[in-house]
Design a protein that fits this description.
The chain is mainly α and about 240 residues long. The chain is built from eleven helices and five strands; from the N terminus they run ααββαααβααβαβααα. The longest helix has about 40 residues.
Length: about 240
Amino acid sequence: MAAETETGEATLTVDELAARAGVTVRTVRFYSTRGLLPPPEIGPRRVGRYGPGHLSRLALIEELQHQGLTLAAIERYLNRLPEGLSPQDLAIHRALVASWTPDGAEETTREELERRAGRALTEEDIDRLAAMNALQRGESLQRGEAAGSYLVDPALLHLGVRLLDVPIAPETVLAARTVLLEHARATARELTRLFRDEVETPDVAAMKSLSAHMQPLVVQALVTAFQRSLNHELRAAYEDAARD
């Protein structure tokens, strides 16, 4: 049985961590020697065990490297982060970094997909991940053939896999996704209009320049505003439930 953290979450060996993150064991150890990853907990038989924080931090490092940052720049970025960040906080940082990266899907086999998910996936799991747009079946699978590949969105896969275990109906997850997309697009349209009005001569080059400067700031502001609004709504819901 896999070891667990104090919060009851399963820990990972270095091989499992590398598979979940989609990197090699050599890469994990290299990042560790550079001090980019904190040391693992040492379990029975002197085996290092990695937790959710290691996985989130590794995903952030990979995203920063994907953006073209050198290892020295990544080290400076990580050193500026507050101490004690939770895996969720690190995931938000990764989302902010990835927010101005062009969308892209990676082709993978079922075996590699399950390695990256860190678990065996049933056909129902695949259906739910596809409904969340975390993956798409390749053409051969769509035709009903036994073997084939999947197009995976790396940014959504880890989120989708975590949602598989959330005790909430798939229909509710999809409805929530629809709400988020509708409001996100409406917000993006209004902000684009404001930025376009700010540019005296709204040519493509000027708009691209303004977008490059403003997009990461806007994303961070939206995430912060959403977190605070959600906390406010949840507190109000708890208070209403307590009064009832």
